[in-house]
Design a protein that fits this description.
The complex is a heterotrimer of chains A (278), B (770) and C (160). By secondary structure, chain A is of the alpha+beta class. Chain A folds into three domains: 50 residues, Uridine Diphospho-n-acetylenolpyruvylglucosamine Reductase, domain 2, CATH 3.30.43; 115 residues, Uridine Diphospho-n-acetylenolpyruvylglucosamine Reductase, domain 3, CATH 3.30.465.10; 100 residues, CO dehydrogenase flavoprotein, C-terminal domain (Enolase-like, domain 1), CATH 3.30.390.50. Chain A has twelve helices and 14 strands. A five-stranded antiparallel sheet of chain A has the order 4-5-10-6-7. In chain A, strands 11-12-13-14 form a four-stranded antiparallel sheet. In chain A, strand 4 and strand 5 form a beta hairpin. In chain A, helix 10 runs antiparallel to helix 11 and helix 11 packs antiparallel against helix 12. Chain A is globular and about 60 Å long. Chain B has three domains: 169 residues, Aldehyde oxidase/xanthine dehydrogenase, a/b hammerhead (Aldehyde Oxidoreductase, domain 3), CATH 3.90.1170; 328 residues, Aldehyde oxidase/xanthine dehydrogenase, molybdopterin binding domain (Aldehyde Oxidoreductase, domain 4, 2-Layer Sandwich), CATH 3.30.365; 147 residues, Aldehyde oxidase/xanthine dehydrogenase, molybdopterin binding domain (Aldehyde Oxidoreductase, domain 4, 2-Layer Sandwich). Chain B is built from 17 helices and 32 strands. In chain B, strand 20, helix 13 and strand 21 form a beta-alpha-beta unit. The longest helix of chain B has 28 residues. With 160 residues, chain C is an alpha+beta fold. Chain C has two domains: 77 residues, Roll (Ubiquitin-like (UB roll)), CATH 3.10.20.30; 73 residues, DNA polymerase, domain 1. Helices cover 31% and strands 19% of the residues of chain C. In chain C, a hairpin with a 2-residue loop joins strand 3 and strand 4. In chain C, helix 2 packs across helix 5. Classes of the chains: A alpha+beta (278), B alpha+beta (770), C alpha+beta (160). At the B-C interface, helix 1 and helix 15 of B face helix 2, helix 3, helix 4 and helix 5 of C.
Chain lengths: 278, 770, 160
């Protein structure tokens, strides 16, 4: 790991001004679980690391029916997984948060970090996609809200302007939403997803998102449209599972083949819908 | 017996639970320098030029070396290797230069400044291709390499050893068989994954003495190899092995010690430390060799196997190290624990531009038994004779004849088979809990002999202190398997003193006595015998003096609870420490001197087999035999396999410590499960794609099945208290037992491991098409 | 760059100047000579470096040294008090829940934090809770059973 300047500002404003000073040679660090490894492997060698964990405003998980859920940028995955509101109103998000890495890792890693990394297989992404979550960012020009599906633009690429910092994630309250997070991985615990996904239902509508099957997590709009307002029969579920495959573009890699990912995507859709059919 | 057979707490526990056990990476010496290594990015490349000029200029850099500085080749059996590449780099990650600097950061920066010009050469990335006549030659000078004459490299090819087993008349036996069938299997490279990465420190002092701290299983073997490679007399090189954080074979030979020694030589008076990263561990520690195995089986209608023809092609990697001997061991064990009259085996070790193959727990047995034990099940299915019956009929009995023509004096094969069948309830069908999750059970046998030269030696010294406590000194290393505890128990048993009165000291070639190596599941047997003899030697010396003191005949005296006791008159007893420094006579004169016992051991009557046929009278020390049973559940929609239960029954001769025995077996079963479910070094064009824990998965606590450990004890005649080695054998049948269970669950056979979810789904799709 | 940090290790106050590019693991190992926490992968995958930070288990290799200001760290060296082993340490010995011992400190720290959070976890919770610690020797069963033993026989640090 190359040497760097470590800064731990206590306000968002200070963080932004340090960021402006160093521009792209600075990185924002929250949980540090990804940044440290990337620095160790010399994938990045920043001049300055801005640790945002001393900023009190970035903590807390709040919920209200009008505003929905607000997850502070420094809230850890364990805090999210154990939060009563999350478990009650967004159970699939709690499942997803708990499925990331190990207990030790989740005590440090944040949901915001999981999203900002923009890995196609980020476990917490698909629950946020189905809820239409919004990323809250702040920069020198003020605050901005970016829908998550616009925020993640490609593998490890996000819509953040220079020197903009993610301050939190807002998840709208969707009364009556039910759903499940699915993770297919080689090993049950402490593994990356081969494919992951969330299948949810709200009223007569279905919301489905998959991860690790395209350069970004994907919301399956066509499949959702097919299902909209219809009674779930075995044949409709099969049709939906098949259609889902046309909305994704998985690759072959060391973890699995493209075909396996296609099959698992269909399976997640099917298993997710079957829950609502019974 | 008082201590042997008891679940004594491990003698190394306290240090290990308090964090005070010192591993090499924990050692910090004054004025220590840190080493880093420049490695080849190509699987096969000519080194045109190495420019170290910028690196040496970097402040804080003390020394930079390249292969050109140390051209002498070394190697355990076949001298084919330099510690730093000379002329060509033969695998991705091979060391080409090394740096010693004041800090690790400086050393890393210096490595980046070393410029190497390469000319890429065509690479051999498949052992079968490597055997072809037009394959690029990896060692063009193979014919000139020094080799121990039990191995047969073939100059002008990539074959570093061709082992042959020739028993009976295979061709005519096949013609008498009712069924003849042939099947092929593939086992990829895997890595040992000790949680402690390799580490070494070397210090060269002004008087010409070299001290090496190494996380190694075999300090004496390391000393020998380093002495030969660097021309240091054995009395000037000291190898210290302290706590070893898991070996499984990877710490058996010399690895990074060969890099720190030349650096230390150039930096006199300053210790040089090198610790592998996890990435290094995957690429530059040894790997388990890949294997392409083909077995042709001739069997009669009554279930008797009459002929076996085996062809094993091993992907040995760029250098052989232990590879040639693994290939030999696999060759002579090739029939498995079966009594077969006609056998023809060819086992080839082939150079490839892959990471260097080395010993891995099982020494070839895990690999060949994945083939052998699945083959038995396949043959059973093809001939409609049950796989249990085929095993009952052909399994080696007492008096049976091994593949090498040796008579079995003892065999626990059938005891272990029946126990495992019972414990896994093999005759009871599985109950599926879901229509898409199918369950199945499987069994597999194994045998393994210590794959060591016939004359290898062990020794032990035991010293009594003035208060009747003892120091036991050996160089067999406790690498986690529990040898410190077991050897202490053996000494305690002989001396009849509480084990806590004996402190064991290991792993210092200047101070602890000779031990060939801590490998081959030979420690309890070989070192155990040496310890037993040392304790008996001490006892007999003490009793020699006691007869004077106690006015009794030797034959009347024995050790009891810390006393020398007259068996006839138990009230006549003297504390053993009375004799610790010899005996003082009434006139004040002393006799005897300090009580020290010495024990040495070599396997009795262990002789080389015939070079050309592999046949022999007593070519191996002993065979350890056992079985595993497994029950699995296969999710037919995801292809994921969950192992629900594993059962082990082995014949260890005698369990010295049930607690450590159980630990060894449980660990082995879980390690075996990992290999068949997940583990594979993914090699593409000579590059490892998964040299990290993210993509090389081993089992976690969450993955483990119910584990049942049973034993069937049939004493080994020459073993200490009847014990024979088990550490490696207990891993061997796990993978094929699981593979057989998977096949029984879903009706698809997997001849390649690991069995991936991808493979499972593809097989099921193929089956449904039919 | 070096940063002044004041924190607590095993309840003892510590004040150090630490480089930015050093991790907690190496602050402990190199600067404080507390070598119980081990480096098995430097990537948060093996758990051998697990220590307890402000009551929670974390990977020592994934915490930067300057972050330590004000923190409370517990390492394996702090588990025994006045030479008396903790119930978990005793149980690890009794169950031979260790072999080579390299991963043992990490397991003890994860398990200590696990039982601090919930003194009576189920076997399933134990298995899940320690799945971030890799062991290549034991097969985990003895480790799980050692933790279960403490979970079922201790209440508020006292044997029941």
């Amino acid at each position: 790991m190359k040497d760097f300047l470590y800064q731990a500002p206590e306000s968002i404003k200070d963080a932004i001004s340090i960021y402006q000073q160093f521009q792209s040679s600075a990185v924002i660090m929250a949980g540090a679980t990804d940044i440290i490894i990337r620095m160790r492997d010399k994938l990045i060698s920043p001049e300055c690391v801005i640790d945002i964990k001393r900023i009190k405003a970035l903590y807390g998980i709040e919920f209200s029916e009008s505003k929905g859920l607000l997850i502070g940028a420094c809230s850890t995955l364990n805090e999210i997984a154990e939060n009563e509101y999350v478990k009650r109103f967004y159970p699939f998000l709690a499942q997803a948060a708990e499925s990331v890495g190990s207990k030790q890792l989740r005590n440090r890693a944040t949901c915001a970090g999981n999203i900002v990394n923009a890995s196609p297989l980020a476990d917490t992404a698909t629950p946020l996609y189905v809820c239409g979550a919004v990323i809250e960012a702040e920069g020198s020009e003020g605050k901005r809200e970016i829908p998550i599906d616009k925020f993640i633009t490609f593998v490890r690429k996000v819509d953040l302007k220079p020197c903009e910092i993610v301050t939190g994630i807002r998840v709208p309250h969707i009364p009556g939403i039910e759903g499940e997070f699915f993770k297919i991985s080689r090993r049950h615990e402490v593994d990356l997803s081969t494919v992951c996904g969330t299948v949810a239902k709200t009223g007569g509508e279905y919301r489905i998102a998959l991860g690790a099957v395209a350069p970004t997590p994907v919301r399956l709009k066509k499949t959702e449209a097919l299902l909209s307002g219809r009674k779930l029969t075995a044949s409709l579920i099969a049709e939906a599972a098949e259609l889902a495959k046309s909305e994704i573009s998985p690759i072959d890699d060391v973890r699995a083949s493209r075909q396996y990912r296609l099959d698992m995507s269909a399976l997640i859709v099917r298993r997710g819908l079957e829950r609502f059919a019974s | 017996m008082k201590y042997v057979g008891e679940s004594l707490q491990r003698v190394d526990s306290y240090k290990k639970v308090t964090g005070s056990a010192t591993f090499v990476s924990d050692v910090k010496l004054a004025r220590m320098l840190y080493a880093q290594v420049k490695r080849s990015p190509y699987p096969h490349a000519k080194i045109l030029n190495i420019d170290i000029s910028e690196a040496v200029k970097l402040p804080g850099v003390k020394c930079v070396i390249t292969g050109e500085d140390y051209k002498k080749r070394g190697g355990l059996y076949l001298e084919d290797r330099n510690f730093l590449a000379v002329g060509t780099a033969k695998y991705c990650g091979e060391a080409v230069a090394a740096v010693a600097a004041e800090t690790l950061d400086i050393a890393e920066a210096a490595v980046e400044l070393i410029k190497v010009d390469y000319e890429e050469l065509p690479a051999v990335t498949n052992a079968i291709d490597g055997m072809k006549p037009d394959a690029p030659l990896i060692h063009p000078d193979l014919g000139s390499y020094k080799v121990i004459p039990i191995f047969f490299p073939q100059p002008g090819t990539n074959i570093s050893h061709h082992y042959k087993l020739r028993k009976g008349d295979v061709d005519s036996a096949f013609s008498t068989a009712d069924f003849v069938t042939e099947h092929s299997f593939f086992i990829p490279h895997i890595q040992h994954v000790p949680i402690e990465p390799h580490a070494a420190i070397a210090l060269y002092e002004s008087d010409g003495r070299m001290t090496v701290w190494a996380s190694c299983q075999s300090p004496y073997a390391v000393r020998q190899a380093l002495s030969a490679s660097f021309d240091i007399p054995l009395n000037k090189i000291r190898v210290i092995s302290q706590a070893v954080g898991g070996g499984f074979g990877s710490k058996a030979g010399t690895t990074l010690e060969g890099i720190v020694i030349p650096l230390a030589k150039r930096c006199q008076g300053r210790p040089v430390k090198l610790v592998y990263t996890r990435e290094d561990e995957f690429e530059n520690a040894y790997v388990r060799q890949g294997l392409h195995a083909t077995i042709k089986t001739g069997i009669r209608k009554d279930g008797k196997i009459v002929a076996l023809k085996n062809r094993f092609i091993w992907d040995g990697g760029a250098y052989t190290e232990y590879g040639v001997n693994i290939v030999k061991a696999a060759g002579y064990a090739s029939p498995g624990p079966y009594d077969v009259d006609n056998i023809w085996t060819d086992s080839y070790c082939v150079y490839t531009n892959h990471p260097v193959g080395g010993p891995y727990r099982g020494f070839g047995m895990c690999e060949i038994h994945f083939a052998i034990e699945q083959n038995i099940d396949i043959v059973a299915k093809e001939t409609s004779i049950s796989e249990v019956e085929i095993r009952r009929i052909n399994g080696l009995r007492k008096g049976g004849i091994t593949g090498q023509g040796e008579k079995m004096i003892v065999s626990g094969y059938h005891d272990c088979l029946e126990t495992v069948l019972k414990e896994i309830e093999y005759d009871k069908p599985c109950v599926n809990t879901s229509p898409v999750k199918l369950r199945g059970k499987g069994i597999a046998a194994c045998w393994k002999a210590p794959s060591m030269p016939t004359d290898v030696a062990s020794s032990a010294i035991i010293r009594m202190n003035e208060d009747g406590t003892f120091f036991l000194m050996v160089s067999a290393m406790d690498i986690g398997q529990g040898s410190d505890t077991v050897l202490t128990q053996i000494a305690a048993e002989v001396l009849d003193v509480p084990p806590e009165n004996i402190t064991i000291r290991t792993g210092d070639t200047d101070h602890t006595p000779y031990e060939w190596q801590t490998v081959a599941s030979r420690t309890t047997y070989c070192a155990g015998n040496a310890v037993k003899l040392a304790a008996e030697d001490l006892k007999s010396k003490v009793i020699e003096l006691a007869q004077i003191k106690m006015c009794a005949y030797k034959r009347e005296l024995e050790f009891q609870n810390g006393f020398v006791v007259n068996k006839m008159h138990p009230e006549n007893r003297v504390p053993i420490q009375t004799f610790a420094l010899g005996l003082t006579l009434p006139d004040g004169s002393g006799v005897g001197g300090p009580a020290i016992g010495v024990g040495t051991f070599v396997v009795p009557n262990n002789m080389n087999a015939d070079k050309y046929t592999g046949m022999g009278e007593h070519p191996v020390a002993f065979w350890t035999i056992g079985f595993n049973g497994a029950e699995v559940e296969v999710d037919t929609e995801t292809g994921l396999i969950k192992v629900l239960k594993m059962v082990s029954c082995f014949d260890p001769g005698k369990v010295i410590n049930p607690l450590t025995y159980q630990g060894q077996v449980e660990g082995a079963m879980v390690q075996a499960m990992g290999t068949v479910l997940w583990e594979e070094l993914k090699l593409k064009d000579g590059h490892i794609l998964n040299k990290n824990f993210v993509d090389y998965k081993i089992a976690t606590a969450y993955d483990i099945p119910e584990l049942i450990v049973k034993v069937a004890e049939n004493a080994e005649l020459t073993g200490p208290y009847g014990a024979r080695g088990i550490g490696e054998p207990v891993m061997v049948p796990g993978a094929p037992a699981i593979a057989n269970a998977v096949a029984n669950a879903i009706g698809c056979r997997f001849t390649r491991m690991p069995i991936t979810p991808d493979d499972v789904l593809n097989a099921l799709k193929g089956k449904n098409k039919k | 760059m070096k940063y002044k940090v004041s924190f607590f290790v095993n309840e003892e106050p510590v004040e150090l100047y630490v480089p930015a590019n050093m991790t907690l693991l190496y602050v402990l190992r190199d600067m404080l000579n507390l070598t119980g926490a081990k480096d098995g992968c430097s990537a948060g995958e093996c758990g051998a470096c697990t220590v307890i930070m402000d009551g929670k288990p974390v990977n020592g290799c994934l915490v930067l040294a300057p972050e330590l200001d004000g923190k409370h760290i517990t390492t394996v060296e702090g588990l025994s008090k006045n030479g008396k082993l903790s119930p978990l340490q005793e149980a690890f010995i009794a169950h031979a829940a260790l072999q080579c011992g390299f991963c043992t400190p990490g397991f003890l720290m994860t398990a200590t934090a696990l039982l601090d959070e919930d003194p009576h976890p189920t076997r399933e919770q134990i298995m899940k809770g320690i799945s971030g610690n890799l062991c290549r020797c034991t097969g985990y069963k003895s480790i799980i059973e050692a933790i279960e033993d403490v979970a079922s026989h201790y209440e508020g640090g006292k044997r029941i």
